[in-house]
Amino acid sequence: MKILLVDDHKIIRDGLRAILEKHQDMVVVGEAANGHEAIALVEQLSPGVVIIDVTMPELNGIDATRRITSAHPEVKVIGLSMNLDRRYVLAMLAAGAVGYLLKNAAAEELIRAIHA
Question: Where are the alpha helices (DSSP H) in 34-115?
Answer without folding.
Answer: 35-45, 61-71, 86-95, 107-115
